[in-house]
UniProtKB/TrEMBL annotation:
<dbReference type="Pfam" id="PF02770">
    <property type="entry name" value="Acyl-CoA_dh_M"/>
</dbReference>
<dbReference type="InterPro" id="IPR036250">
    <property type="entry name" value="AcylCo_DH-like_C"/>
</dbReference>
<comment type="similarity">
    <text>Belongs to the acyl-CoA dehydrogenase family.</text>
</comment>
<dbReference type="InterPro" id="IPR013786">
    <property type="entry name" value="AcylCoA_DH/ox_N"/>
</dbReference>
<feature type="domain" description="Acyl-CoA oxidase/dehydrogenase middle">
    <location>
        <begin position="139"/>
        <end position="229"/>
    </location>
</feature>
<protein>
    <submittedName>
        <fullName>Putative acyl-CoA dehydrogenase</fullName>
    </submittedName>
</protein>
<feature type="domain" description="Acyl-CoA dehydrogenase/oxidase C-terminal">
    <location>
        <begin position="242"/>
        <end position="388"/>
    </location>
</feature>
<keyword id="KW-0560">Oxidoreductase</keyword>
<dbReference type="InterPro" id="IPR052033">
    <property type="entry name" value="Glutaryl-CoA_DH_mitochondrial"/>
</dbReference>
<keyword id="KW-0285">Flavoprotein</keyword>
<dbReference type="Pfam" id="PF02771">
    <property type="entry name" value="Acyl-CoA_dh_N"/>
</dbReference>
<keyword id="KW-0274">FAD</keyword>
<dbReference type="InterPro" id="IPR009075">
    <property type="entry name" value="AcylCo_DH/oxidase_C"/>
</dbReference>
<dbReference type="InterPro" id="IPR009100">
    <property type="entry name" value="AcylCoA_DH/oxidase_NM_dom_sf"/>
</dbReference>
<dbReference type="InterPro" id="IPR006091">
    <property type="entry name" value="Acyl-CoA_Oxase/DH_mid-dom"/>
</dbReference>
<dbReference type="GO" id="GO:0000062">
    <property type="term" value="F:fatty-acyl-CoA binding"/>
</dbReference>
<dbReference type="GO" id="GO:0004361">
    <property type="term" value="F:glutaryl-CoA dehydrogenase activity"/>
</dbReference>
């Protein structure tokens, strides 16, 4: 039987993972990569340095025009893309900057996903088409100043007043909060945790922006303050009660992070690989020294193992067989390895590694936030520990 001709070794795809992708997968990837190259990469270092995302509403509309917002959802103007295609989009967005991927993740995997899965027909018709188009930005209020990893202890309360609901409380570290037109807010009620669709122009709602960040600087991060926010009865998400609601949304967003972290890692690896071929010391490119080659080899191994893992989880999500513990596996591994790749890339770039002329330090500092949000290292270790042993150690 004749053998197919072997393709030449590709330093940017050493395992030939592109062979796993369909033509449609590649088209989605190239669309998002091209948009990021045109609209984000020329500006993001300046945005990061100034600690702002000045064109966020325009960027959201553009992301909507290429089908990147709520792209895994069906109907209501959403693209109905596969999980793998959504993951590829997250990878390309985070290769530009984690803040841009966070904008898309919170819009689609948290706010839109919550309304799409748990909302009423009226809520879906009102909000999802404009959110898919990027005309309305959404945010997701779960984390509180005193309750992050343990959302069951949330202090935000919703009480009935006649046929209305009245919400009081605070949410913290909310991406998109200050620019959102709608917030999905989770609050404790007499019957358990409920989700509420809150127009941000409701009296008593405010979203002061959080400043002085050294991570995710090209991203809008806010506090949500709910001071007697009165909502009609139909503001509550009718199809879920309890923490199952917000946790299922978080699981969807974590899946995107599994891919996105590899985008930041890829950007840092490629910067280091190019630099190693150009930078000369002792009369030769530093890429010719054994220690540098060892670093590049280790980085490539972890990068492409992580992408392979992400693709495997995407196929399981598309097949309907993906478990939350498997998402924890991916989030724990890929973010942790992505940070290590960034740190190793920084050593190859030497002093230039801390300059915003290169993406490495920006990715490294962004990933410190990605490591924490959507479940800390410790939380995902305990999720896996419980799955492996059958013993719940969260409160032990």
């Amino acid at each position: 039987m004749p053998h197919a001709a072997k393709a030449p070794f590709d330093p940017h795809d050493p395992l030939g993972l592109d062979d796993l992708l369909t033509a449609e997968d590649r088209a989605v990837r190239e669309t998002v990569r091209g948009w990021a190259a045109d609209r984000v990469l020329p500006h993001v270092a300046g945005w990061y340095e100034r600690g702002e995302l000045p064109e966020v509403r325009e960027l959201a509309r553009e992301l909507g025009s290429i089908g990147a917002l709520g792209m895994q959802l069906d109907g209501y103007g959403c693209a109905g893309a596969s999980a793998v295609q959504y993951g590829l989009a997250c990878l390309e967005l985070e290769a530009a900057d984690s803040g841009i991927r966070s904008l898309v993740s919170v819009q689609g995997s948290l706010a839109m996903y919550a309304v799409h899965r748990f909302g009423s027909d009226a809520q879906k018709e009102r909000w999802l088409p404009s959110m898919a188009a990027g005309e309305v930005i959404g945010c997701f209020g779960l984390t509180e100043p005193d309750h992050g990893s343990d959302p069951a202890g949330m202090r935000t309360r919703a009480v009935r007043d006649g046929s209305d609901w009245v919400l009081d409380g605070r949410k913290m570290w909310i991406t998109n909060g200050s620019v959102a037109g709608v917030a999905v807010v989770w609050a404790a009620t007499e019957e358990g945790v409920r989700g509420f669709v809150v127009p941000t122009d409701a009296p008593g709602f405010s979203a002061p922006e959080i400043r002085h960040k050294w991570s995710l600087r090209a991203s809008v991060t806010s506090e949500l303050v709910l001071d007697g926010v009165r909502l009609p009865a139909d503001a509550v998400l009718p199809e879920v009660t309890g923490l199952r609601g917000p946790l299922s949304c978080l699981n969807h967003a974590r899946y995107g992070i599994v891919w996105g972290a590899m985008g930041a890692a890829r950007s840092s690896f490629e910067a280091a690989l190019a630099y190693a071929g150009e930078r000369e010391q002792f009369g030769r490119p530093i890429g010719g020294f054994q220690l540098t080659q060892a670093k590049l080899a280790d980085m490539a191994v972890e990068l492409h193992k992580g992408i392979l893992l992400a693709h495997h989880l995407g196929q399981r999500m598309d097949a309907g067989t993906l478990r939350p513990e498997q998402v924890s596996f991916g989030k724990l591994n890929n973010v942790r390895e992505a940070i290590e790749i960034c740190r190793t890339a920084r050593t190859i770039l030497g002093a230039n590694g801390i300059s915003l002329e290169y993406p490495v330090m920006r990715h490294a500092t962004n990933l410190e936030s990605v490591l924490t949000y959507e479940g800390t290292v410790e939380m995902h270790q305990l999720v896996l520990g419980k799955a492996l042993t059958g013993i719940d150690a969260f409160r032990g």
